[in-house]
Amino acid sequence: MTETPTRMETPYRRALLQRSGVLAIVERRTSAADALDPDALDLHLCLTEEGAVYAFNGHVDLGTGIRTALAQIVAEELDVAIDTVTMALGDTDNTPDQGPTIASETIQISARPLRIAAAQARLHLLGLAADMLDRPTDDLVIRDGILRSREDARIALPFGELLQNRQIHLLLDPETPVKDVADYRIVGRSVGRVDIPDKVTGSFVYVHDVRVPGMLHGRVVRPPYSGIDAGDFVGRSLEEVDKASIAHVPGVVAVVVQGDFIGVVCEREEQAIEAAAALKVTWKPWVAGADLGHVENALRAQPVQSRRLVDEGDVDAALAIAGHRLDRTYVWPYQMHGSIGPSCAVADFQPNGLRVWSGTQNPYPMRTDLALLMGLAEERIEVIRIEAAGCYGRNCADDVTADAALLSRGVGRPVRVQLTREQEHLWEPKGAAQLIDVSGALGPGGSLAAYDFETRYPSNLAPTLALLLTGAVSPRPFIAQMGDRTSRPAYDYENIRVTVHDMAPIVRASWLRGVSAMPNVFAHESFIDELAEEAGADPVAFRLDHLTDPRAAELTRATAERAGWTPRVGPAPQEDGTEIVRGRGFAQARYVHGKWPGTAAAWSAWAAEVAVNRVTGEVNVTRVVVGQDTGMMVNPAGVRHQIHGNVIQSTSRVLKEEVSFSETTAVASREWGAYPILGFPDLPSVDVLMMDRQYEPPLGAGESASVPSAAAIVNAVYDATGVRFRELPLTPERVLAGLGRLPQKTAAPARKRRRFAFFGGLGALAVGLAGFAAMALPIRAAIPPIARPDPTTYSASTIERGRVMASLGACAVCHTAPGGAAYAGGLAIETPFGTVMSTNITPDVSTGIGNWSYPAFERAMREGLHRDGRHLYPAFPYPNFAKADEADLQALYAFLMSQTAVAKANAPTRMTFPFNIRPLVAGWNLLFNRPGTIEADTAQSEAWNRGRYLVDGLGHCSACHSPRNALGAEKTGASYLAGGVAEGWEAPALTNLSHAPIPWTEADIYRYLRTGKSLHHGTAAGPMAPVVAELRALPDEDIRAMSVYLASFSDPMALDEVESRAAHISAATSVSAAPPSSTGARFYDGGCASCHEAGRGAILVNAGPALGFNTNLHAAKPDNVIRAILGGIEGHSGTMPAFGAALDNRQLADLIRYLRQRFAPDRASWQDLEETIARIRKPAT
Amino acid sequence: MRAARPIQLRVNGQAHVVEAEPRTPLLFLLRNDLCLNSPKYGCGLGECGACTVIIDGIAARSCVVSAASAEGREIVTLEGLGTIDHLHPVQAAFIEEQAAQCGYCLNGMIMTAKALLDRDPDPDEASIRNELRFNLCRCGTHIEILRAVMTAARRMREGASAAP
Question: Which residues contact A773 (CB under 8 A, 6 or more apart)?
């Protein structure tokens, strides 16, 4: 395997500081640092004699393009071409410590030393050239890295030549003059991103792609208190890890356990996935502090630490006398970063220290955490920062790095840890929910008399998870002061009070794009709209009347003009006689980030247009005109792109996004169906207006355009509908409830407890069977053992015929244990009467059937007797096998005897009383086993008769597809093939009793048996999947014969009728007939539709069948649907992923309820779904 | 049935044999055994599209395609589409339109678009939006991606009509 170079092509600080032929701009890491010791110096910029420019910055590129913008800044100040500049970003061994990459401040703040360093290097180069060329400095300039004379055109000296054999280290001089903006030739012009060519060709290295020599693969197993990181139970809930539970998984290297931290390390990634899923872990019960079923109540109930940030005038007095007083509450939900790539890291722990490859946002602070976790000095830890999937704040990047460190220490080798989608969703520090109360009032003449603003914000900045899980830090909640961003409104309120109630986290929360500013501005800008209407003013004009900041006012005017804003007072919906009604809304803000009073960044203004469907409740943002004043733009194309991204992402957050919680308050959103985000079909048209401010300081562009989004959209919905929404997101249910169309929450279905009637009848059965015991026949005689037959005595054609018969009988399906050798037995088969263990049928003499003569084998096949005379249980379908021809049985015997002998003792079968009395089976046989071959039915075709022989004989279809009586025997007559059970799956009826919406035709059966798929029925799943796989060995004419025979049990339907019925079903079950306005619908849309809805979305090679035709969705019981979704489908006919780990029982019930309603609309809804799911899933242990 | 066995894969025109359990998702074999990093793990459930490859000319979500079912089929990854020196028109268009922020979803966008354009050289914007409906992007690069696919379609049509 090719490996990622340890340091890839990144320039290396230490090497550059030690070599000659360089000009380096350095800074002492501490004031006492030795300027000769490379480890004591930060390197900002290094030029080499080869003409290379290396620039170092402590921030990282989160996908926003700062690598390119920083290179532009360096190229500009140095007067070199941008492509000669290589950036090194955020790496503890390499770059200066400039803190975490947050608040869009890379360009605004942390680019400064780089700009100065580049200016300093330029001046020094000019000085060197002046000496060398003996010309005055002001005669010289640098153009594209070449020193030229203003006077003498012959002079052209590449800067590298000035550095030959020199080692120049200059201390960064903050007083160095930088270029005048008027002279800029690179900064302020759009340039292509340096990373995109590698990204479009797959050669870019993300942290997910790092491979180092000897690397193993790890997965973690997280505690059940998903997403909660405060409380006594955190780090103290693990009871037991049963390492033996993964003994069957190949490639396991170690299981690492420390406190509540658990990880598995394997040779291969898929092994680690399997081991993590199979590892049996027992957790203690735990109790969460708050109920997040109702976010407003939860936030109001939480203890607070309050800060009064602004208190000007007398708010209470002004509110008391005001005529138009409004009291409003705004609720912001918990939201996710939702990085498309779950976090990943590689760690290499060696005796001399730890090296990690990480997608962290904050290399230095994370190193401090790692030092604490591992008990290592910081200097012994190296953090190499590699780009990851975009994050918009603190996701799990640091967590997974710490996980990898622990696992690497556990095995002494490098370990790569990839979090699963579910783990990233559950555990990423969420964007905090927020609750905002505002009271305000108008004064005389539309003045703003009073504003009383209180905001509640629960966060602890999310300590690195492994520190909490291992107990290295206390899980006592720390209270972060982060709710204050942009908490002061932009308007001239005469009396104003701003209070922030900081509080401990309820679930893990930290910063997410527009941290606390987005919710705060949602309140400010919704409220000012209401005041405008109270004042009888147009919302834009009213804002302009009260804005004190001229740049805000200018942006507001420009944006409104660009949008073609039509002044209005109150709602002025545009209607066209349909269910769609349209409106427009405005909002603006200047994002203030950092600790109060904070740093003001870019201004943003939105004019949003929405279309609201009054019938379905769907809100579409159709157009956004977004204005931004971001000061100087380094890369205007990059700024525009960031604005697009902010508009789309924040629209998604406002319309769709809300973390859901289980009844225990643990996070419940594990995949994209539970947390939908905006996609291509719902994309608004975005018109960006960028103010020309190239002579003003740059203010960053990473977040500001998100900030006015919520209020602009909500104000537009108000314009369209006259209904004001103060809680997000604007899901169809919430909008319909607001419009008075529907209750917001449909009552949960009443819960009934139900016992399994199934077991009720067994007592009576036992009594009946006891009667048999009295007349039980004696054990039959043994047939003497023989020496193992020599397989070479069988002809190749006989063995081949036997192979086909073994496939028809699907012998290997039951006689092979998971992960075991073929035919060596050991599969546990659950029956209502106990667990039957399949036996070893390889030709091993002591443990298999190697010493069975053909007569012994034939007797077993026809009469269900072991060679030694014991009765075999009829889970072994000898009543069917009895019907096989002698020639086929002999061929089967020859085939089995020619297989590899495997020594594997049979596990005991565990039957319940009285079924554990084997001789009883003799009585059963008297009643139900009628050995004898099948008589041909001359009225039927040859194919029909052949099909019947295959189906009823070795094919033993009826063993599963016919119902069984109370004693476990197949029912016959009208019940033949009328539907049975197999391994807990329903084996559907193959006759007119089928629930399939379209009857089985011969062609459909043929296609299904041959490929495992039928357009009009579905995909072979559960125990049928391996049967279809086995049937591949059968010749086509046999499959056709089986199809002819099986089709004879269903009334034929003409092809055109099949087609018209199919078309009818497709139309009746289409998405337009069931708009996605429920939780279940969203699960379907996010989790199922991508594969199951041809035509909506990409055409996929591995698409699933259309669900309107699915037999299981039309069945009387939901069991097969539940099993397919929980466990997925594996087989050559197709793969469906298992959703058992991605959806909890309540979510699955929501989904299945929706599936039944949508795809089998004429069937009664299934009852007690949650209970059935719980039974099938079995208690998670 | 769960034991590892040699899996024969044909990827980007080259034959490979990988020893693995047949039910292993193709994604992991491409990434870990063949070191083809372009298909990305995003969800493992076929929901997001980051792992998209092209199998027998049609887009496939390699996280839900088992190794066994990919055997004997023609698999193309982003690496097989083109290189920096010889870009496929779809790749060139994505550079031209600067259609990436973090770029993690980009593999799926390009591969899905490529499969679409092979099937329908002249899709309208609504068809492109529909085709990419279940390819998730979190950075909000949708506008640039749409433009890139339109540009690619135009260039490929021009290229086809210019060809002798």
Answer: A914, A917, A919, A920
Q: Compute and round to an integer the Cα radius of gyration of chain A.
A: 36
- Partner-chain residue, chosen from A270, A389, A1026, that has the shortest CB–CB distance to B102: A389
State the CB neighbour count (10 A cutoff) for residue A1032: 13
User: Shortest Cα distance from B54 to chain A (angstroms)?
Assistant: 8
Q: CB of A819 within 8 Å of any CB in chain B?
A: yes
B44 to A648: CB separation less than 8 angstroms, yes or no: no
Fold classified for A434-738: Aldehyde Oxidoreductase; domain 4 (3.30.365)
CB-based contact A208 B25, cutoff 8 Å? no
- Asked whether A499 and A305 are in contact (CB, 8 A), the reply is no
* Best of B101, B146, B151 to mutate (most A CBs within 10 Å, chain A): B101
Does residue A202 sit at the B interface (CB-CB below 8 Å)? yes
Residues A47 and B51: their CA atoms lie apart, in Å, by 40
Please state, in angstroms and rounded to a whole number, the distance separating the CA atoms of residues A632 and A691. 9
Distance from A1141 to chain B by nearest Cα, in Å?
11
| A1017 touches A1114 (CB < 8 A) | no
| Common-topology check for domains A13-201 and A434-738 | yes
Q: Residue length, chain A?
A: 1181
A1161 touches chain B (CB under 8 A): no
- All domains in chain B, ordered by first residue: 5-80 (3.10.20.30), 82-162 (1.10.150.120)
Query: Is CATH 1.10.760.10 what the domain over A942-1177 is classified as, yes or no?
Result: yes
* Burial (0-12, 13-18, 19+ Cβ within 10 Å), A174: exposed
pLDDT digits (tens, 9 = 90+) for A749-772: 333 333 333 333 333 333 333 333
The radius of gyration of chain B's CA atoms, rounded to the nearest angstrom, is 16
Q: Does domain A207-287+338-427 have CATH number 3.30.365.10?
A: yes
Predicted confidence (pLDDT) per residue in A107-151, tens digit: 777 888 999 999 999 999 999 999 999 999 999 999 999 999 999
Q: For residue A746, what pLDDT band results from cuts at 50, 70 and 90?
A: very low
* Alpha-carbon dihedral angle through residues A1066, A1068, A1074, A1079, given to the nearest 10 degrees: -70
For B97, which residue in chain A has the nearest alpha carbon? Answer: A192
Q: Please answer yes or no on whether A1132 and B68 come within 8 Å at the CB atom.
A: yes
The residues that bridge with A169 in the sheet, in sequence order, are A24
In chain A, the residue whose alpha carbon lies closest to the alpha carbon of B41 is A341
- Predicted-assembly ipTM surpassing the 0.95 threshold: yes
Classify domain A13-201 at the CATH class level: alpha beta
CB contact A277 to B (< 8 Å)? no
The answer to whether the CB atoms of B133 and A679 lie below 8 A apart is yes
Count A/B contacts: CB-CB distance under 8 Å. 257
Interface list for A 374-403 with B (CB within 8 A): 387-390, 392
- Single-letter code of the amino acid located at A12: Y
Partner-chain contact B132 A679, CB within 8 Å: yes
Domain map of chain A by residue range?
13-201, 207-287+338-427, 434-738, 779-928, 942-1177
d(CA A247, CA A199): 40
**Whole-prediction pTM value?**
0.91
A residues 638-657 lying closer than 8 A (beta carbon) to B:
641-642, 644-649, 652
Distance CA A971, CA A978 (A): 9
**Above 80 in pLDDT, residue A825?**
yes
Q: Cα(A158)–Cα(A169) distance, rounded to whole angstroms? A: 20
Q: Residue A324: which of A201, A449, A224 has the closest Cα?
A: A449
Task: Check CB contact of A504 with chain B, cutoff 8 Å.
Answer: no
Amino acid identity of B100?
A: A
CA nearest to A540, candidates A551, A549, A553: A553
